[in-house]
Amino acid sequence: MQTKTASVSSASAAPKSRWSAQDTTWVLSLFGTAVGAGILFLPINAGMNGFWPLLAMTLLIGPMTYLAHRGLARFVLSSAKPGSDITEVVEEHFGASAGKLITLLYFFAIYPIVLIYGVGITNTVDSFMVNQLGMASMPRALLSIILILGMMSVMIAGEKLMLKVTQFLVYPLVGILLFMSVYLIPEWNLASVSLDTLPSWGDFAVTLWITIPVLVFSFNHSPIISAFSQAQAREHGEQAEEKASRILARSAMMLLGFVMFFVFSCVLSLSPQDLAQAKAENLAILSYLANKHDSPFISYLGPVVAFVAIVSSFFGHYLGAREGLNGLVSKQLKSAGKQVNEKNIDKFTVVFMIATIWLVATVNPSILGMIETLGGPIIATILFLMPMYAVHKVPAMQKYKGAVSNVFVTLMGLIAISAILYGLFF
Protein backbone atom coordinates (compact mmCIF):
# COMPACT_ATOMS: atom_id res chain seq x y z
CA MET A 1 0.00 0.00 0.00
CA GLN A 2 2.89 2.36 0.86
CA THR A 3 4.55 1.69 -2.48
CA LYS A 4 1.32 2.41 -4.34
CA THR A 5 0.79 5.65 -2.37
CA ALA A 6 4.33 6.75 -3.04
CA SER A 7 4.02 6.10 -6.76
CA VAL A 8 0.74 8.03 -6.92
CA SER A 9 2.17 11.02 -5.03
CA SER A 10 5.31 11.07 -7.15
CA ALA A 11 3.17 10.98 -10.29
CA SER A 12 1.01 13.82 -9.03
CA ALA A 13 4.11 15.79 -8.09
CA ALA A 14 5.59 15.42 -11.59
CA PRO A 15 5.72 18.81 -13.36
CA LYS A 16 3.32 19.38 -16.21
CA SER A 17 4.92 19.37 -19.65
CA ARG A 18 4.90 22.72 -21.43
CA TRP A 19 2.26 23.50 -24.01
CA SER A 20 3.64 23.32 -27.55
CA ALA A 21 2.61 24.23 -31.09
CA GLN A 22 2.08 20.51 -31.72
CA ASP A 23 -0.46 20.42 -28.88
CA THR A 24 -2.36 23.30 -30.49
CA THR A 25 -2.30 21.42 -33.81
CA TRP A 26 -3.86 18.38 -32.10
CA VAL A 27 -6.58 20.58 -30.56
CA LEU A 28 -7.43 21.82 -34.05
CA SER A 29 -7.38 18.29 -35.50
CA LEU A 30 -9.76 17.01 -32.81
CA PHE A 31 -12.00 20.03 -33.43
CA GLY A 32 -11.86 19.46 -37.19
CA THR A 33 -12.81 15.79 -36.83
CA ALA A 34 -15.89 16.69 -34.79
CA VAL A 35 -17.03 19.57 -37.01
CA GLY A 36 -18.15 17.50 -39.97
CA ALA A 37 -21.08 17.80 -42.29
CA GLY A 38 -23.43 16.92 -39.43
CA ILE A 39 -22.64 20.15 -37.59
CA LEU A 40 -24.45 22.06 -40.34
CA PHE A 41 -27.66 20.20 -39.42
CA LEU A 42 -27.15 20.53 -35.64
CA PRO A 43 -28.99 23.89 -35.28
CA ILE A 44 -32.01 22.33 -37.02
CA ASN A 45 -32.09 19.10 -35.03
CA ALA A 46 -31.17 20.60 -31.65
CA GLY A 47 -33.06 23.89 -31.93
CA MET A 48 -36.52 22.82 -33.11
CA ASN A 49 -37.84 22.59 -29.56
CA GLY A 50 -36.86 26.08 -28.48
CA PHE A 51 -34.31 27.94 -26.40
CA TRP A 52 -34.57 26.31 -22.96
CA PRO A 53 -33.94 22.67 -23.95
CA LEU A 54 -31.05 23.92 -26.08
CA LEU A 55 -29.59 25.72 -23.05
CA ALA A 56 -29.80 22.51 -21.00
CA MET A 57 -28.12 20.58 -23.82
CA THR A 58 -25.28 23.12 -23.84
CA LEU A 59 -24.65 22.57 -20.12
CA LEU A 60 -24.50 18.79 -20.69
CA ILE A 61 -22.53 18.48 -23.91
CA GLY A 62 -19.30 20.08 -22.66
CA PRO A 63 -18.60 17.58 -19.85
CA MET A 64 -20.05 14.73 -21.95
CA THR A 65 -17.64 15.44 -24.80
CA TYR A 66 -14.56 15.88 -22.64
CA LEU A 67 -15.10 13.05 -20.15
CA ALA A 68 -16.12 10.44 -22.74
CA HIS A 69 -13.17 11.14 -25.05
CA ARG A 70 -10.78 11.30 -22.09
CA GLY A 71 -12.01 7.86 -21.01
CA LEU A 72 -11.34 6.43 -24.49
CA ALA A 73 -7.87 8.02 -24.59
CA ARG A 74 -7.07 6.54 -21.17
CA PHE A 75 -8.21 3.15 -22.43
CA VAL A 76 -5.83 3.30 -25.42
CA LEU A 77 -2.98 4.48 -23.17
CA SER A 78 -3.58 1.64 -20.68
CA SER A 79 -1.79 -0.92 -22.87
CA ALA A 80 1.33 -2.63 -21.55
CA LYS A 81 2.68 -2.60 -25.13
CA PRO A 82 3.81 0.87 -26.25
CA GLY A 83 2.38 1.98 -29.61
CA SER A 84 -0.73 -0.22 -29.48
CA ASP A 85 -3.81 1.09 -31.29
CA ILE A 86 -7.35 0.67 -30.01
CA THR A 87 -7.91 -2.66 -31.80
CA GLU A 88 -4.78 -4.11 -30.17
CA VAL A 89 -5.66 -2.73 -26.73
CA VAL A 90 -9.12 -4.32 -26.89
CA GLU A 91 -7.58 -7.69 -27.69
CA GLU A 92 -4.98 -7.28 -24.94
CA HIS A 93 -7.59 -6.52 -22.26
CA PHE A 94 -10.59 -8.57 -23.36
CA GLY A 95 -9.12 -11.47 -25.35
CA ALA A 96 -8.88 -12.44 -29.04
CA SER A 97 -12.58 -13.15 -29.62
CA ALA A 98 -13.76 -9.88 -28.03
CA GLY A 99 -10.96 -8.10 -29.86
CA LYS A 100 -12.23 -9.34 -33.24
CA LEU A 101 -15.84 -8.46 -32.44
CA ILE A 102 -15.15 -4.93 -31.18
CA THR A 103 -12.71 -4.26 -34.03
CA LEU A 104 -15.41 -5.33 -36.49
CA LEU A 105 -17.99 -3.08 -34.81
CA TYR A 106 -15.49 -0.20 -34.59
CA PHE A 107 -14.80 -0.40 -38.32
CA PHE A 108 -18.46 -0.62 -39.35
CA ALA A 109 -19.39 2.30 -37.08
CA ILE A 110 -16.83 4.64 -38.69
CA TYR A 111 -16.51 3.37 -42.28
CA PRO A 112 -20.05 4.41 -43.40
CA ILE A 113 -19.31 7.96 -42.21
CA VAL A 114 -16.22 8.02 -44.46
CA LEU A 115 -18.45 6.93 -47.35
CA ILE A 116 -20.94 9.67 -46.48
CA TYR A 117 -18.17 12.28 -46.63
CA GLY A 118 -17.26 11.02 -50.10
CA VAL A 119 -20.86 11.64 -51.19
CA GLY A 120 -21.05 14.95 -49.28
CA ILE A 121 -17.89 16.46 -50.78
CA THR A 122 -18.99 15.51 -54.30
CA ASN A 123 -22.48 17.01 -53.83
CA THR A 124 -21.10 20.18 -52.22
CA VAL A 125 -18.55 20.90 -54.96
CA ASP A 126 -20.99 20.00 -57.77
CA SER A 127 -23.67 22.30 -56.30
CA PHE A 128 -21.14 25.14 -55.89
CA MET A 129 -19.92 24.78 -59.48
CA VAL A 130 -23.46 24.81 -60.89
CA ASN A 131 -25.26 27.30 -58.61
CA GLN A 132 -22.56 29.77 -57.60
CA LEU A 133 -20.03 29.58 -60.45
CA GLY A 134 -22.55 28.99 -63.26
CA MET A 135 -20.59 26.03 -64.65
CA ALA A 136 -21.95 22.80 -66.10
CA SER A 137 -21.79 19.67 -63.94
CA MET A 138 -18.73 17.50 -64.43
CA PRO A 139 -19.34 13.76 -64.89
CA ARG A 140 -19.97 12.60 -61.33
CA ALA A 141 -17.52 9.71 -61.52
CA LEU A 142 -14.72 12.06 -62.64
CA LEU A 143 -15.47 14.78 -60.08
CA SER A 144 -15.69 12.32 -57.19
CA ILE A 145 -12.42 10.53 -58.00
CA ILE A 146 -10.55 13.87 -58.27
CA LEU A 147 -11.85 14.98 -54.86
CA ILE A 148 -11.29 11.59 -53.19
CA LEU A 149 -7.74 11.27 -54.52
CA GLY A 150 -7.03 14.80 -53.31
CA MET A 151 -8.14 13.96 -49.75
CA MET A 152 -6.49 10.53 -49.79
CA SER A 153 -3.16 11.94 -50.99
CA VAL A 154 -2.94 13.96 -47.77
CA MET A 155 -3.58 10.82 -45.68
CA ILE A 156 -1.06 8.74 -47.65
CA ALA A 157 1.59 11.45 -47.15
CA GLY A 158 1.44 10.85 -43.39
CA GLU A 159 0.26 12.16 -40.04
CA LYS A 160 2.42 15.33 -40.05
CA LEU A 161 1.02 16.60 -43.36
CA MET A 162 -2.51 15.66 -42.30
CA LEU A 163 -2.12 17.73 -39.12
CA LYS A 164 -0.75 20.69 -41.07
CA VAL A 165 -3.55 20.58 -43.65
CA THR A 166 -6.15 20.24 -40.89
CA GLN A 167 -4.65 23.23 -39.10
CA PHE A 168 -4.76 25.19 -42.37
CA LEU A 169 -8.43 24.27 -42.87
CA VAL A 170 -9.68 24.68 -39.30
CA TYR A 171 -8.56 28.30 -38.80
CA PRO A 172 -10.81 29.62 -41.60
CA LEU A 173 -13.58 27.27 -40.47
CA VAL A 174 -13.46 28.71 -36.95
CA GLY A 175 -13.30 32.23 -38.37
CA ILE A 176 -16.30 31.69 -40.66
CA LEU A 177 -18.37 30.05 -37.90
CA LEU A 178 -17.65 32.98 -35.59
CA PHE A 179 -18.32 35.56 -38.30
CA MET A 180 -21.59 33.90 -39.29
CA SER A 181 -22.69 33.74 -35.65
CA VAL A 182 -22.07 37.48 -35.20
CA TYR A 183 -23.56 38.30 -38.63
CA LEU A 184 -26.89 36.76 -37.57
CA ILE A 185 -27.17 38.68 -34.26
CA PRO A 186 -29.29 41.53 -35.74
CA GLU A 187 -31.78 38.85 -36.83
CA TRP A 188 -32.20 37.42 -33.30
CA ASN A 189 -35.74 37.10 -31.98
CA LEU A 190 -35.53 36.91 -28.18
CA ALA A 191 -39.20 36.04 -27.66
CA SER A 192 -38.24 32.38 -27.21
CA VAL A 193 -35.98 33.31 -24.26
CA SER A 194 -39.00 34.30 -22.15
CA LEU A 195 -39.84 32.10 -19.15
CA ASP A 196 -43.34 31.86 -20.61
CA THR A 197 -41.92 29.56 -23.30
CA LEU A 198 -40.62 27.01 -20.77
CA PRO A 199 -42.04 23.58 -21.69
CA SER A 200 -43.53 21.26 -19.09
CA TRP A 201 -41.08 19.02 -17.23
CA GLY A 202 -42.32 15.98 -19.16
CA ASP A 203 -41.85 17.62 -22.56
CA PHE A 204 -38.52 19.07 -21.42
CA ALA A 205 -37.19 15.64 -20.38
CA VAL A 206 -38.37 13.92 -23.56
CA THR A 207 -36.83 16.67 -25.72
CA LEU A 208 -33.49 16.30 -23.94
CA TRP A 209 -33.60 12.52 -24.22
CA ILE A 210 -34.23 12.37 -27.97
CA THR A 211 -31.75 15.19 -28.76
CA ILE A 212 -28.75 13.91 -26.77
CA PRO A 213 -27.68 11.52 -29.59
CA VAL A 214 -27.65 14.43 -32.05
CA LEU A 215 -25.30 16.34 -29.76
CA VAL A 216 -23.12 13.30 -29.06
CA PHE A 217 -22.48 12.60 -32.71
CA SER A 218 -22.12 16.23 -33.73
CA PHE A 219 -19.29 16.56 -31.19
CA ASN A 220 -17.87 13.07 -31.72
CA HIS A 221 -14.16 12.80 -32.52
CA SER A 222 -13.61 9.24 -31.28
CA PRO A 223 -12.25 7.96 -34.64
CA ILE A 224 -9.06 10.00 -34.20
CA ILE A 225 -8.61 9.32 -30.46
CA SER A 226 -6.55 6.15 -30.97
CA ALA A 227 -4.03 7.83 -33.31
CA PHE A 228 -4.01 10.89 -31.02
CA SER A 229 -3.30 8.77 -27.92
CA GLN A 230 -0.52 6.87 -29.67
CA ALA A 231 1.09 10.18 -30.64
CA GLN A 232 0.93 11.41 -27.02
CA ALA A 233 2.51 8.14 -25.81
CA ARG A 234 5.37 8.51 -28.33
CA GLU A 235 6.01 12.15 -27.48
CA HIS A 236 5.37 12.28 -23.73
CA GLY A 237 5.82 8.77 -22.31
CA GLU A 238 4.58 8.61 -18.72
CA GLN A 239 3.04 12.08 -19.02
CA ALA A 240 0.93 11.06 -22.02
CA GLU A 241 -2.33 10.79 -20.07
CA GLU A 242 -1.91 14.19 -18.45
CA LYS A 243 -1.05 15.83 -21.79
CA ALA A 244 -3.90 14.05 -23.61
CA SER A 245 -6.39 15.24 -20.97
CA ARG A 246 -5.26 18.86 -21.32
CA ILE A 247 -5.53 18.77 -25.12
CA LEU A 248 -8.96 17.10 -24.96
CA ALA A 249 -10.19 19.69 -22.44
CA ARG A 250 -9.18 22.58 -24.71
CA SER A 251 -10.69 20.89 -27.75
CA ALA A 252 -13.99 20.35 -25.89
CA MET A 253 -14.03 24.01 -24.77
CA MET A 254 -13.33 25.16 -28.32
CA LEU A 255 -16.13 22.98 -29.69
CA LEU A 256 -18.54 24.16 -27.03
CA GLY A 257 -17.72 27.84 -27.51
CA PHE A 258 -17.65 28.16 -31.28
CA VAL A 259 -20.18 25.51 -32.28
CA MET A 260 -22.85 26.28 -29.69
CA PHE A 261 -22.56 30.04 -30.31
CA PHE A 262 -23.22 29.24 -33.98
CA VAL A 263 -26.15 26.98 -33.05
CA PHE A 264 -27.72 29.58 -30.73
CA SER A 265 -27.26 32.33 -33.31
CA CYS A 266 -28.98 30.24 -35.99
CA VAL A 267 -31.81 29.14 -33.69
CA LEU A 268 -32.51 32.66 -32.39
CA SER A 269 -32.56 34.09 -35.93
CA LEU A 270 -35.12 31.52 -37.16
CA SER A 271 -38.56 30.48 -35.94
CA PRO A 272 -39.42 26.87 -34.99
CA GLN A 273 -41.48 26.77 -38.21
CA ASP A 274 -38.39 27.78 -40.22
CA LEU A 275 -36.34 25.03 -38.59
CA ALA A 276 -39.09 22.48 -39.24
CA GLN A 277 -39.21 23.52 -42.89
CA ALA A 278 -35.42 23.23 -43.21
CA LYS A 279 -35.62 19.73 -41.73
CA ALA A 280 -38.44 18.76 -44.09
CA GLU A 281 -36.44 20.03 -47.08
CA ASN A 282 -33.30 18.21 -45.80
CA LEU A 283 -31.27 21.42 -46.09
CA ALA A 284 -28.12 22.37 -44.21
CA ILE A 285 -28.73 25.40 -42.00
CA LEU A 286 -26.61 27.77 -44.11
CA SER A 287 -28.39 26.70 -47.30
CA TYR A 288 -31.74 27.46 -45.65
CA LEU A 289 -30.49 30.84 -44.39
CA ALA A 290 -29.21 31.70 -47.87
CA ASN A 291 -32.62 30.88 -49.38
CA LYS A 292 -34.55 32.73 -46.66
CA HIS A 293 -32.47 35.92 -46.72
CA ASP A 294 -31.59 35.75 -50.42
CA SER A 295 -28.05 36.65 -49.38
CA PRO A 296 -25.28 36.04 -51.96
CA PHE A 297 -22.82 36.45 -49.07
CA ILE A 298 -24.28 33.44 -47.23
CA SER A 299 -24.83 31.48 -50.45
CA TYR A 300 -21.09 31.64 -51.18
CA LEU A 301 -19.96 31.09 -47.60
CA GLY A 302 -22.28 28.09 -47.05
CA PRO A 303 -20.58 25.75 -49.54
CA VAL A 304 -17.14 26.89 -48.31
CA VAL A 305 -18.05 26.00 -44.71
CA ALA A 306 -19.48 22.65 -45.83
CA PHE A 307 -16.39 21.85 -47.93
CA VAL A 308 -13.91 22.70 -45.17
CA ALA A 309 -15.97 20.91 -42.51
CA ILE A 310 -16.25 17.73 -44.59
CA VAL A 311 -12.55 17.61 -45.54
CA SER A 312 -11.27 18.24 -42.00
CA SER A 313 -13.65 15.66 -40.58
CA PHE A 314 -12.84 13.12 -43.30
CA PHE A 315 -9.20 13.01 -42.16
CA GLY A 316 -10.03 12.03 -38.58
CA HIS A 317 -12.68 9.49 -39.58
CA TYR A 318 -10.40 7.94 -42.20
CA LEU A 319 -7.75 7.34 -39.51
CA GLY A 320 -10.31 5.41 -37.45
CA ALA A 321 -11.65 3.43 -40.43
CA ARG A 322 -8.12 2.56 -41.59
CA GLU A 323 -7.20 1.43 -38.10
CA GLY A 324 -10.30 -0.77 -37.91
CA LEU A 325 -9.77 -2.38 -41.32
CA ASN A 326 -6.05 -2.94 -40.69
CA GLY A 327 -6.95 -4.56 -37.36
CA LEU A 328 -9.54 -6.83 -38.98
CA VAL A 329 -7.16 -8.01 -41.70
CA SER A 330 -4.20 -8.58 -39.37
CA LYS A 331 -6.34 -10.49 -36.83
CA GLN A 332 -7.73 -12.67 -39.62
CA LEU A 333 -4.23 -13.43 -40.90
CA LYS A 334 -3.00 -14.29 -37.40
CA SER A 335 -5.98 -16.62 -36.88
CA ALA A 336 -5.10 -18.40 -40.13
CA GLY A 337 -1.47 -18.73 -38.99
CA LYS A 338 -0.21 -16.46 -41.78
CA GLN A 339 2.49 -13.80 -41.55
CA VAL A 340 1.33 -10.21 -41.03
CA ASN A 341 2.96 -7.65 -43.33
CA GLU A 342 1.77 -4.24 -42.14
CA LYS A 343 2.93 -2.40 -45.29
CA ASN A 344 0.95 -4.71 -47.54
CA ILE A 345 -2.11 -4.37 -45.29
CA ASP A 346 -1.79 -0.57 -45.49
CA LYS A 347 -1.64 -0.73 -49.31
CA PHE A 348 -4.73 -2.94 -49.41
CA THR A 349 -6.60 -0.55 -47.11
CA VAL A 350 -5.75 2.48 -49.27
CA VAL A 351 -6.92 0.76 -52.47
CA PHE A 352 -10.08 -0.56 -50.77
CA MET A 353 -10.96 2.86 -49.36
CA ILE A 354 -10.42 4.75 -52.62
CA ALA A 355 -12.41 2.19 -54.64
CA THR A 356 -15.38 1.97 -52.27
CA ILE A 357 -15.61 5.70 -51.48
CA TRP A 358 -15.49 6.43 -55.23
CA LEU A 359 -18.15 3.84 -56.01
CA VAL A 360 -20.54 5.14 -53.34
CA ALA A 361 -19.89 8.81 -54.21
CA THR A 362 -20.65 8.05 -57.88
CA VAL A 363 -23.82 6.07 -57.16
CA ASN A 364 -25.00 8.63 -54.55
CA PRO A 365 -27.40 6.30 -52.68
CA SER A 366 -29.99 7.69 -50.27
CA ILE A 367 -29.54 4.77 -47.82
CA LEU A 368 -26.38 6.24 -46.28
CA GLY A 369 -28.26 8.28 -43.67
CA MET A 370 -29.81 5.12 -42.32
CA ILE A 371 -26.42 3.36 -42.23
CA GLU A 372 -24.99 6.28 -40.22
CA THR A 373 -27.89 6.03 -37.76
CA LEU A 374 -27.34 2.29 -37.34
CA GLY A 375 -23.69 2.99 -36.49
CA GLY A 376 -24.78 5.34 -33.69
CA PRO A 377 -25.29 2.78 -30.91
CA ILE A 378 -21.91 1.21 -31.70
CA ILE A 379 -20.08 4.54 -31.49
CA ALA A 380 -21.84 5.37 -28.19
CA THR A 381 -20.94 1.94 -26.79
CA ILE A 382 -17.26 2.24 -27.74
CA LEU A 383 -16.96 5.89 -26.67
CA PHE A 384 -19.02 5.92 -23.47
CA LEU A 385 -19.47 2.39 -22.13
CA MET A 386 -16.38 0.36 -23.08
CA PRO A 387 -13.86 2.60 -21.23
CA MET A 388 -16.12 2.69 -18.14
CA TYR A 389 -16.41 -1.12 -18.21
CA ALA A 390 -12.62 -1.32 -18.49
CA VAL A 391 -12.23 0.87 -15.39
CA HIS A 392 -13.79 -1.95 -13.36
CA LYS A 393 -12.34 -4.95 -15.21
CA VAL A 394 -8.83 -3.97 -16.39
CA PRO A 395 -6.10 -3.70 -13.70
CA ALA A 396 -4.31 -0.89 -15.55
CA MET A 397 -7.53 1.19 -15.53
CA GLN A 398 -8.58 0.62 -11.92
CA LYS A 399 -6.72 3.72 -10.72
CA TYR A 400 -9.63 5.67 -12.25
CA LYS A 401 -12.30 3.87 -10.19
CA GLY A 402 -14.61 5.71 -7.84
CA ALA A 403 -14.90 8.99 -9.76
CA VAL A 404 -18.35 10.58 -10.06
CA SER A 405 -17.51 11.34 -13.70
CA ASN A 406 -17.60 7.59 -14.43
CA VAL A 407 -21.26 7.43 -13.37
CA PHE A 408 -22.06 10.51 -15.47
CA VAL A 409 -20.39 9.08 -18.61
CA THR A 410 -22.08 5.68 -18.18
CA LEU A 411 -25.50 7.29 -17.66
CA MET A 412 -25.13 9.58 -20.69
CA GLY A 413 -24.01 6.64 -22.83
CA LEU A 414 -27.05 4.59 -21.83
CA ILE A 415 -29.38 7.54 -22.46
CA ALA A 416 -27.85 8.15 -25.91
CA ILE A 417 -28.15 4.48 -26.91
CA SER A 418 -31.73 4.18 -25.62
CA ALA A 419 -32.78 7.31 -27.55
CA ILE A 420 -31.15 6.06 -30.78
CA LEU A 421 -32.85 2.67 -30.49
CA TYR A 422 -36.17 4.40 -29.75
CA GLY A 423 -35.73 6.53 -32.88
CA LEU A 424 -34.97 3.45 -34.97
CA PHE A 425 -37.92 1.34 -33.89
CA PHE A 426 -40.68 3.83 -32.97
From TrEMBL:
The protein's topology relative to the membrane is: Multi-pass membrane protein
Q: Where does this protein reside within or beyond the cell? A: Cell inner membrane
Cite the GO molecular-function annotations of the record.
amino acid transmembrane transporter activity; protein serine/threonine kinase activity; symporter activity
This protein's superkingdom?
Bacteria
What keywords were assigned to this record? Answer: Amino-acid transport, Cell inner membrane, Cell membrane, Kinase, Membrane, Serine/threonine-protein kinase, Symport, Transferase, Transmembrane, Transmembrane helix, Transport
Keyword Transit peptide on entry: no
Keyword Magnesium attributed: no
Residue spans crossing the bilayer: 26-44, 50-68, 101-121, 141-157, 169-186, 206-226, 247-270, 297-321, 348-368, 374-391, 403-425
Instruction: Give me the Gene Ontology terms describing cellular component.
Output: plasma membrane
From the UniProt record, list the reaction(s) this protein catalyses.
L-serine(in) + H(+)(in) = L-serine(out) + H(+)(out)
Q: Which residues form a coiled coil?
A: none
Q: Where would you say this protein principally sits, based on its record? A: membrane
Name of the featured protein: Serine/threonine protein kinase
The organism encoding this protein is: Photobacterium halotolerans
Q: What lineage is on file?
A: Bacteria, Pseudomonadati, Pseudomonadota, Gammaproteobacteria, Vibrionales
